[in-house]
Design a protein that fits this description.
By secondary structure, the protein is an alpha/beta fold. Helix content is about 40%, strand content about 15%. The protein is globular, with a radius of gyration of 22 Å.
């Protein structure tokens, strides 16, 4: 029997029995069973439509016909071990190279963002012959053991911090040490990285890499202050280390104005290694590491062959090429700029009407709405954010989620075909829910009195 013929309760019962319970579902108290999708919409087993503001993986839209056709055509022809010579892998690498700074011209294809970040770590350590890594607080870089070790978001809940891992403050100008009124937050936060480097050197250790998401996502949809990465790269390279930009969440035009989020830092900034994943294959497992000739050369010189059975296989690369074509043909970067700006503008107007909205931030279709119980103190409104997410799903059939250290940032990373009307619907729905929550809270207060 096909799975979609099961009743929702049966599917849930089987999942509870057969799938590890740490693999948690969205809306775990009342999960949504999705049986098909198209564009920015999900459909449940009853044909009810949900607006998807979560799936940054389905970058150009769920089940895009151009992507499924490319996958089917190549799958019918050939899919094989990536160690056979084939055109798709070199054509795809060449197309990716055209989007990146000239020095990032060597590619390693893998299957997931976690694999990409693990390989980036190996490349950095091999090239520098150092072990230690600096990461940003609240960062998440993947689920392999090596990446849990460099993800404060995870290791703080587990075995704790390894001696070779060093944590620099998250450059959050809303909630961090240096706020939006600081004369030069980029320099101030970059200097905190310099302080970490100096401390590492005092311990007689050496840095291999500074590892950071170009726009920290789990940290709360953070926009790095302009010039931060350039200054950090200067300090990091002076220490004999490399700068790794994790673009797994933010690459492929999500920011609209640029193809890569690291490019927001200015034309003079170029990382030494870039990792990419989630949006590359529009839901197909495809990821990559891009680096320089020098770093790749050092990796080759260790004498140990690197191969990845599926990474860069003909089907994956055919899908990757089709994704690039759709981004271009449908002007999805332009759409991200226009719709993202409209969404931010509408949310900012909402902020003037609702005291609970502490901050609206973002770029392109990477947007965060931070909820607070007190604007002066900036106290996280974790419970309210959770209620907003629950009610959006139940009452409006809009799927969003929260992030940030206190889970009080409602985040938007929808498919790139998200429309003006979608943005307006989301904001109208949030407005209604916040108004209703405020009315109910006042009513409760009056009853208590």
């Amino acid at each position: 029997m096909a799975l979609e013929k099961f009743r929702k309760e049966d599917t849930l019962a089987m999942r509870t029995k057969l799938i590890g319970q740490s693999c948690r579902l969205f809306y775990s108290d009342d999960p949504v069973k999705i049986v098909r999708a198209r564009g920015q919409y999900l459909f449940d087993e009853n044909g009810m439509r949900y607006l998807d503001c979560i799936s940054n993986v389905h970058h150009v839209g769920h089940c895009h016909p151009s992507i499924t056709q490319a996958a089917t055509a190549q799958m019918e022809l050939l899919n094989t071990n990536a160690r056979f010579l084939h055109d798709n892998i070199v054509l795809y690498a060449d197309r990716l190279a055209a989007t990146l700074p000239e020095k990032l011209c060597v590619f390693y294809f893998v299957n997931s963002g976690s694999e990409a970040n693990d390989l980036a770590l190996r490349l950095a350590q091999q090239y520098t012959q150092h072990e230690d890594v600096i990461v940003l607080d609240h960062a998440y870089h993947g689920h392999l053991m090596s990446l849990i070790d460099i993800s404060p978001y995870k290791f703080r809940k587990l075995a704790g911090q390894k001696e070779w891992v060093h944590v620099a403050p998250l450059p959050d100008t809303y909630r961090g040490t240096y706020k939006e009124n600081h004369p030069n937050p980029a320099q101030a936060y970059a200097d905190t990285v310099k302080d970490v480097i100096d401390e590492v050197h005092r311990k007689g250790r050496k840095i291999s890499a500074f590892f950071a998401e170009s726009l920290p996502s789990v940290g709360g949809q953070i926009i790095l202050p302009q010039g931060y990465s350039t200054k950090v790269a200067e300090y990091v390279r002076s220490a004999g280390a490399v700068f790794v930009a994790d673009e797994v969440q933010t690459g492929f035009g999500r920011v609209g104005s640029h193809f890569w989020a690291f490019q927001l830092q200015g034309e003079d900034f170029c990382p030494d290694i870039v990792t990419m994943g989630k949006p590359m294959g529009n839901g197909h497992p495809l990821a990559c590491v891009a680096t320089t000739v020098e770093i790749a050369g050092a990796f080759t010189a260790n004498g140990v062959e690197y191969f990845n059975t599926f990474g860069g296989n003909p089907v994956s690369c055919a899908i990757g090429l089709a994704v690039l074509d759709v981004i271009e043909k449908e002007d999805l970067r332009g759409n991200a700029m226009r719709v993202g700006a409209h969404l931010k503008d509408l949310l900012s107007k909402l902020q003037t009407r609702h005291q609970i909205i502490g901050d609206v931030r973002g770029v392109g279709l990477f947007v965060g709405l931070e909820l607070v119980t007190d604007r002066e103190q900036r106290t996280p409104a974790t419970d309210a954010a959770s209620r907003v997410v629950k009610r959006l799903k139940e009452e409006e059939r809009i799927c969003v989620s929260t992030d940030g250290p206190w889970e009080n940032v409602v985040k938007f990373k929808p498919p790139m075909c998200f429309s003006m009307e979608d943005a307006e619907l989301v904001v109208q729905s949030i407005d209604r829910i916040l108004t209703d929550m405020k009315t109910n809270d006042l009513k409760r207060e009056n009853e208590d009195i």
